[in-house]
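TASK: fixed-backbone design
INPUT:
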């Protein structure tokens, strides 16, 4: 509604004076302010805020009259009355400056376009020169307590119990009359007043009084603290007066009246403000609501504020400012919504937490249109400050006498306060005195606008507060309205502002792209598309009109209800947005009476006029002329004078399609296009006038459109009280009818209300007892400024503060006293409130229909959580037994949605443990819910239930459920969850020793934690800590353990580790049995499973291959590897014996840059796995150097004849790779001009024929994806190190890598290999050969290629070699060494010989992040913590 912005501004008085002001009184229009000090009367102008004239009383007169105390203006600003301490009223004439009309004038540079010789242009921007002239003083012979102006009279209350009526002009004997308070009868209501006075008023006088125009009476505070209301029984104030008083109050201190809402706010000594209204039937005073600080939000200060000192309603009467004896300012909306208070948070504390003294205020007043609050601090406050300043500024000439001590607080306010027609839109529009704030517009425009974020007034340009740009990646739609806290700030055009300040109305169109503002005269509009303002080209036209009833947008027209000074006539005008702003392009309709309010509904305009009538006009776009115009026709007039006591009481008028009658059903949705009813906010009472359909109904078809007469309206019905704002929409959406056909009300401290339609379900006949609509109240935490109907959101704004203590010192400036205030956008979901209210009223069916219509909203799961959470908190913490609990109903309601299981568990996790039993008693046993999650395959939710089970059940139960979940997660490859489950199971094991459920805490560094295993291994610094910690599954545990863990604890932990290892081994066995090598690789890499060690143990058990053919086909399928096909030209190939081997194409595939290999991650691998260590790499490097010569000789003697030539491609991107031949020759291969070249041993270059190229392309086509190749190569290494030779053969076959087969077969000769392995490989290869001959001929060329090895195998298996003890570590080194230089492209070892190193690529996808053995017992010395597992040496893990 109203929001503080920036820092307050201090105004300095140019006159030197020892006196300081203590009272401020605004003139009627608030353009002038009268300031009083003891013997001075000063008049200040509002814009610019300057002193115009000061009257200083002579010492002799001051001695006679006494010091000045109060002041009051005559309504036409021509006179000021000042009350003095000795009971005199001094009347001053305020005179214009004669010749020197202006005290201050704007000065423009030469040639400025603003210098226009138009009447009234310059005058509007000048501060006028005024003079004050004292008239004859009036002596009332008693101290004066209160002054109040009426049209021609001045009312003065004196301490002797009299009420004096003075005439402003005639001050003779006829111009004055005194009424004694004791002669006024006071009663509790006007009906009992005839029995004579009921209050004893002897010695009592009026100490504070204010006149209320719309109640036609005076709100008074009596000297004994009682509150009353005095009303004249006839037209004249001097005639009979009658009073009513409020029962049970005797501590009143001050009063302020609200003319628009007919409210009287009385301040009390207790610190609260009581707001009364007059009951229209009995005339008694009724308490409407209280304004007081709550202990919930202000626990330190709520009962220490002291008495209420001042109450000030804003000029538009929508907010009230209160200050107390102890200081501070607090702002409330008219019906008690609390907006701002300076007694808490940053206002009351320094940044170091020390308390500030609140600002004590002696007088305050709102400026024009409520953009400023003028505040005069207490005198002792200022003296204290100035003394401090003098101490500091001894060096500089002292100037404290210049300090006038006026503070100006700056406010921005919602456009709804004065122009309620904007309530039909879904944007928030705020306006300050020179800028607009909007929450809408295309986000790209918002971000592109650099000055749009200058969220500062020019005078507040602190370098600290340049707002940052919002995130520019927002999409249109909801994110535009919700995505960031920034406003789109539009500076109002300075030319318009200078001559027409202050801005009185602002409006925005439905799309949120066009704004219009109206000041004192004329108006201007702005477009976000063009970023330009449009002003009247002819200033005379601008100055000849003033907007009276407000502004609105209809399509691309601005609708203006204005008064034309030239014709002296009220008009309704339409200006087209695209045309120039000129009356020549306007459509003008003459009106018969002054317009007070205007609103637009579809193609209708509704006007509320000063004669209390409502007019409906139809509007239609005409395109017959050169420019589009509007034709306006009067449809209907409705007189409301019977129901409206005063036209100023109508706050807003709205046309809606809402109706209550029985015609509502789902089959025939209400005609959203027709204006069914008028909503009138009459001083906070929402009144509805519906169309009267009781008469004979004529069908639409039968009447021609021309003479169609609109239905009359029924008598009004009151829908709600204490209404501040109303929102409806004219859009319709069949899916969300509940929300779009509802009526939304903002009701101050009572929160919001929604008048919701109720529909019978599935087109059934409605129940006769079921009403058509229901009013549901609900509370929200923000002040609502707009409602997004379909999105079930309320938009608002909130004040935020920024502390600025950069200038602390002995003299604290204002910037240190007050925080810098900003206004942030905010929003809130309200759907859960409505659903809850419907369930409370047993309208579950309606709640279900409403919820299902909103189920697609992104925050719908949050809505369900909120409803459970709110009801649970309320019922479970209630001290009284609840007769009819709502939680079971809510639980049943939520089961209708698929999100039921997540909702319950999320709510439980966010609720304290003590309430869980109550929750699960209503929703069901958590064990059952856990099982439901498993059945629904929702493992993440099941994991959340596990945490609840851990706290609510014994460890055995949670372990049982955890094991279930762990196995399911392993099966589904949910690796993150598996890691959590491992940690969880370990925590449960340790937790069994402790009786209560453990509280989570981080692991002590000295216990067996994650990083200890790395003590003796050098880890490359380029690795991220993530990859180290996540690689090992023994991460931090969720239980705390003392550093000296007992032996029992270690036993439990070892048992727990064993239990987990057993499950991991079982899963690995399961994967290997099912030939799921790819899954096995993922499993190993993701969970840090020691695959090589395990395979060594399982080498002769599960790691055997029973059926080579099915294993081969399964690998083809798993790794998306194509079965090889025979090229058509293979039989006529020029290469001898078809010897174009897989080496050829492997080299082609492998000659890619290192980056592509490093970046090829598996889809399931987390990014951190990309930099993990290679356990096998260094062992290979070491062993290769030793066995290099042997291995190359070994391969030479095996198959020298197959290496006649090889192909390679080297581009400039792969200098770090060398491609070595299988025979380890040192020739260089090259590419000339990008052609393929064939290099033989003699480096003779031959060109390839067409057939050979086809052959090569066919070879390439027989390869699978690069990622699969990397994974298969890695698995090959793993199986080689573990000595699982059968698997090596299968992988060698799929890769069609002859070297692998050669190596394996050559190793079969060694005595360590059991004969059954050799037998199995022989049988397997024979089976593959048979299968290839029948089913897959593409394998035949490769099988032919390895024929010599097969022959060797056949011969060797006949001789039975006696196996020796198998030594895998040496064996694997040998295997790796001979494998190294063979088929794989390798990083070049930078030595002089340029010998290619073994395959050392970082293979991120499947590489386990540290294939280490299980942690050793803790008591073993650190040197021995490296368990020398089979198949592993001690490695130095570094990254290549």
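OUTPUT:
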């Amino acid at each position: 509604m109203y929001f503080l912005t920036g820092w307050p501004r201090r105004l300095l008085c140019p006159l030197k004076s020892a006196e300081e002001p203590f009272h401020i009184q605004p003139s009627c229009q608030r353009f002038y302010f009268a300031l009083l000090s003891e013997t001075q009367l000063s008049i200040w102008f509002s814009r610019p805020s300057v002193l115009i004239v000061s009257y200083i009383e002579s010492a002799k007169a001051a001695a006679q009259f006494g010091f000045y105390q109060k002041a009051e203006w005559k309504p036409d600003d021509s006179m000021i009355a000042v009350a003095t301490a000795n009971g005199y009223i001094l009347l001053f004439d305020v005179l214009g400056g004669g010749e020197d009309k202006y005290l201050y004038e704007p000065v423009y540079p030469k040639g400025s376009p603003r210098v226009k010789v138009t009447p009234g242009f310059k005058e509007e921007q000048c501060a006028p020169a005024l003079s004050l002239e004292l008239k004859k003083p009036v002596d009332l012979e008693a101290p004066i307590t209160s002054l109040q102006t009426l049209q021609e009279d001045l009312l003065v209350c004196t301490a002797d119990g009299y009420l004096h009526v003075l005439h402003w002009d005639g001050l003779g004997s006829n111009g004055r009359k005194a009424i004694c308070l004791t002669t006024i009868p006071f009663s509790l209501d006007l009906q009992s007043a005839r029995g004579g006075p009921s209050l004893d008023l002897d010695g009592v006088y009026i100490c504070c009084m204010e006149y209320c125009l719309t109640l036609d009476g005076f709100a008074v505070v009596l000297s004994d603290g009682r509150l009353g209301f005095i009303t004249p029984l006839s037209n004249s104030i001097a005639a009979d007066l009658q009073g009513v008083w409020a029962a049970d109050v005797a501590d009143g201190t001050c009063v302020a009246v609200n003319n628009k809402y007919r409210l009287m706010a009385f301040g009390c000594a207790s610190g609260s403000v009581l707001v009364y209204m007059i009951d229209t039937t009995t005339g008694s005073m009724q308490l409407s609501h209280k304004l007081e600080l709550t202990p919930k939000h202000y626990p330190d200060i709520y009962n220490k504020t002291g008495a209420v000192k001042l109450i000030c309603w804003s000029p538009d009467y929508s907010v009230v400012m209160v200050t107390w004896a102890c200081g501070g300012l607090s702002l409330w909306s008219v019906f008690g919504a609390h907006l701002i208070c300076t007694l808490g948070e940053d206002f009351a504390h320094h940044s170091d937490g020390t308390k500030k003294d609140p600002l004590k205020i002696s007088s305050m007043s709102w400026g024009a249109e409520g953009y400023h609050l003028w505040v005069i601090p207490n005198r002792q406050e200022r003296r204290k400050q100035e003394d401090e300043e003098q101490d500091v500024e001894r060096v500089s000439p002292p100037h404290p006498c210049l300090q006038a001590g006026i503070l100006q607080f700056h406010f921005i306010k919602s456009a709804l306060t004065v122009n309620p027609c904007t309530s039909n839109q879904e944007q928030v529009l705020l306006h300050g005195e020179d800028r607009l704030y909007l929450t809408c517009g295309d986000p790209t425009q918002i971000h592109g606008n650099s000055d749009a974020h200058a969220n500062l007034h020019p005078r507040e340009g602190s370098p600290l507060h340049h707002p940052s740009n919002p995130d520019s990646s927002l999409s249109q739609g909801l994110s535009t309205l919700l995505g960031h806290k920034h406003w789109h700030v539009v500076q109002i055009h300075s030319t318009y502002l200078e001559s027409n300040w202050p801005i009185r109305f602002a409006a925005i169109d439905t799309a949120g792209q066009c704004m219009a503002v109206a000041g004192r005269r004329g108006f201007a509009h702005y477009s976000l598309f063009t970023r330009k303002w449009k002003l009247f080209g002819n200033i005379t036209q601008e100055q000849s009109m003033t907007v009276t009833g407000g502004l609105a947008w209809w399509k691309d027209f601005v609708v203006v209800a204005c008064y034309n000074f030239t014709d002296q006539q009220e008009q309704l005008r339409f200006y087209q947005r695209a045309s120039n702003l000129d009356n020549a392009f306007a459509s003008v309709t003459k009106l018969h009476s002054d317009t007070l309010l205007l609103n637009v509904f579809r193609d209708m305009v509704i006007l509320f006029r000063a004669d209390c009538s409502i007019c409906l006009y139809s509007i239609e776009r005409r395109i017959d002329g050169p420019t589009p115009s509007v034709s306006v026709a009067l449809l209907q007039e409705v007189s409301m004078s019977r129901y409206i006591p005063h036209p100023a009481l109508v706050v807003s008028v709205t046309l809606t399609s809402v109706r209550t009658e029985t015609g509502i059903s789902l089959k025939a949705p209400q005609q959203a296009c027709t204006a069914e009813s008028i909503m009138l906010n009459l001083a906070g009472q929402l009144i509805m006038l519906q169309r009267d359909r009781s008469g004979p109904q004529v069908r639409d078809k039968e009447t021609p459109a021309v003479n169609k007469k609109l239905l009359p309206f029924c008598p009004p019905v009151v829908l709600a009280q204490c209404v501040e704002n109303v929102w409806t929409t004219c859009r319709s959406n069949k899916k969300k009818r509940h929300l779009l056909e509802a009526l939304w009300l903002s009701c101050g401290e009572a929160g919001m209300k929604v008048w919701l339609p109720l529909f019978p379900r599935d087109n059934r006949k409605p129940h006769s007892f079921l009403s058509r609509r229901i009013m549901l109240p609900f509370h929200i935490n923000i002040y609502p400024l707009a409602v997004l109907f379909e999105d079930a959101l309320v938009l608002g704004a909130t004040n935020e503060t920024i502390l600025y203590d950069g200038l602390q010192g002995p003299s604290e400036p204002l910037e240190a006293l007050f925080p810098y205030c900003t206004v942030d956008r905010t929003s809130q979901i309200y759907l859960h409130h409505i659903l809850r209210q419907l369930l409370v009223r047993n309208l579950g069916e309606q709640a279900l229909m409403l919820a299902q219509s909103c189920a697609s909203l992104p925050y719908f799961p949050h809505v369900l959580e909120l409803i459970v959470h709110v009801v649970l908190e309320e019922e479970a913490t209630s001290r009284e037994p609840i007769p009819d609990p709502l939680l079971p109903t809510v639980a049943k309601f939520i089961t209708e949605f698929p999100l039921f299981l997540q909702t319950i568990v999320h709510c439980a996790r966010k609720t304290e443990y003590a309430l869980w039993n109550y929750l699960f008693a209503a929703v069901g046993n958590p064990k059952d819910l856990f099982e439901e999650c498993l059945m629904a395959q929702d493992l993440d939710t099941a994991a959340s239930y596990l945490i609840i089970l851990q706290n609510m059940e014994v460890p055995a139960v949670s372990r049982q459920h955890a094991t279930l979940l762990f196995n399911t997660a392993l099966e589904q490859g949910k690796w993150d969850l598996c890691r959590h489950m491992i940690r969880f199971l370990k925590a449960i094991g340790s937790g069994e020793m402790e009786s209560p459920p453990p509280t989570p805490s981080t692991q002590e560094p000295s216990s067996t934690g994650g990083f200890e295993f790395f003590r003796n291994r050098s880890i490359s610094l380029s690795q991220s800590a993530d990859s180290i910690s996540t690689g090992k599954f023994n991460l931090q545990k969720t239980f705390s353990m003392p550093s000296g863990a007992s032996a029992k604890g270690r036993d439990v932990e070892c048992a727990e580790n064993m239990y987990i290892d057993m499950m991991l081994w079982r899963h690995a066995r399961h994967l290997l049995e099912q030939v799921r090598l790819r899954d096995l690789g993922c499993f190993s890499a993701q969970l840090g499973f020691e695959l090589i060690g395990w395979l060594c143990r399982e080498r002769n058990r599960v790691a055997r291959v029973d059926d080579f053919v099915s294993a081969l086909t399964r690998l083809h399928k798993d790794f998306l590897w194509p079965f090889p096909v025979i090229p058509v030209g293979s039989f006529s190939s020029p290469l001898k014996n078809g010897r174009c081997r897989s080496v050829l194409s492997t080299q082609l595939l492998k000659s890619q840059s290192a980056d592509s290999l490093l970046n090829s991650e598996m889809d399931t691998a987390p990014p951190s796995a990309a930099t993990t260590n290679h356990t096998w790499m260094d062992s290979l490097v070491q062993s290769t150097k030793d066995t290099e010569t042997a291995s190359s000789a070994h391969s030479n003697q095996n198959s020298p004849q197959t290496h006649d030539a090889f192909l390679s491609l080297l581009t400039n991107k792969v200098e770090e790779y060398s491609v070595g031949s299988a025979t380890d020759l040192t020739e260089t291969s090259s590419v000339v001009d990008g052609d393929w070249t064939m290099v033989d041993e003699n480096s003779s270059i031959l060109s390839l024929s067409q057939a050979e190229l086809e052959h090569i392309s066919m070879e390439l086509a027989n390869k699978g994806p690069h990622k699969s190749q990397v994974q298969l190569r890695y698995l090959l290494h793993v199986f080689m190190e573990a000595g699982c030779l059968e698997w090596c053969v299968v992988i060698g076959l799929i890769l069609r890598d002859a070297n692998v087969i050669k190596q394996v077969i050559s190793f079969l000769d060694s005595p360590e290999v059991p004969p059954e392995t050799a037998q199995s490989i022989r049988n397997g290869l024979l089976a593959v050969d048979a299968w290839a001959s029948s089913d897959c001929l593409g394998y035949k060329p490769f099988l032919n290629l390895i024929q010599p090895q097969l022959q060797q195998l056949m011969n060797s298996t006949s001789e039975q070699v006696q196996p020796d003890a198998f030594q895998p570590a040496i064996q694997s080194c040998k295997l790796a060494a001979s494998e190294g230089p063979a088929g794989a492209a390798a990083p070049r070892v930078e030595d002089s010989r340029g010998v290619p190193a073994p395959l050392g690529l970082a293979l991120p996808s499947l590489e386990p992040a540290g294939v280490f053995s299980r942690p050793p017992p803790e008591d073993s010395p650190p040197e021995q913590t490296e368990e020398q597992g089979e198949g592993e040496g001690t490695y130095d893990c570094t990254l290549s």
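COMMENT: The chain has a mean pLDDT of 76.
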